[in-house]
Structures are given as C-alpha cells and as structure tokens.
Amino acid sequence: MTHSAAANTSRRRVALAVLAVATVGIGLVVHRGMSGAVGDIAGDALYAVLIYLLVALVAPRWPRPAVAFLSFVVCAGVELLQLTGLPREWGAMFPPIRLVLGSGFDLRDLAVYAIAVAATSLIDMGVTRVVGGSASGNATGRPPEGERPV
Prior knowledge:
By secondary structure, the protein is mainly alpha-helical. Helices cover about 75% and strands about 0% of the residues. It has six helices and no strands. Helix 2 (about 35-60) crosses helix 3 (about 65-80) and helix 2 crosses helix 6 (about 105-130). The longest helix is centred in the N-terminal third of the chain and has 31 residues, at about 5-35. It starts with a helix and ends in a 19-residue tail after the last helix.
C-alpha cells in the first residue's frame, strides 16, 4: 500500500469512527424522544447505518457493495436471532442489550435495514467520489498514474 493509500485509509477510518459515534448519539435521542412506528423505523434505520459504518471501519478498503451486503447480513442475523427469544431473555437480565439485539422479531425491520444499508452505501460511494476517490484507487478502480499496486 502506498503512503497516499494508507493516508486515505486512515482518514476514512477516522471519519467512519466519528460518524459511528454520532449515529449512536442520534440513535439514543431517537430512542428516548420518538415513539410509535416513526420512532421504530428511524431507530431501525440508524441501527443499519451504524452496522454499515462499523463494517466499513473494520474493512475500509472493501468494495462498498461488499460492505453493504455484510452489513445487511449482520442486521438480518440479529433480527432473526430475535425469533429464538434469547435477546428478550438477555435484555431482561441486562436491559442495555435490547439496544443492540432488540427484543422481538418484526418483518418490517428487514425492509428498513435493506433500504437504510443501500442508501448508506450509495451515499458512501458518492462522498468517496466527491472527496477524491476510494482508498484503493481512482474512480476506475485503477491506481493513480505512476503508481503500481503493492
């Protein structure tokens, strides 16, 4: 990895971490201040955005579609885990776990996750292009002129 690519990856990680912290903060405000279907949908969307940001933070050079796919799989896996009743039991013992694992399965949540992850991925791709290309090369996916892949 070139120095420039390493710097881009570092900047991306910092930005993703800041956005993840902000998303948690906004999510807590939504959790406390909004109720009903709107609050539930907003919370689910923010949860999916957070998962996307965390996956991208761990794998900043992955293609955005791969980050989106894994993010949706994680969200769907957590939602499906709710069918077992385990998150509800764990939440009864340690209430904050409900913020991470939820408590009851809702099919609508899967649709919200898919839409939120797709939107986040599209925004990520757009921002990456505007800011100056991905960490792995330019918009064509090739290294900048004069650089060779390592």
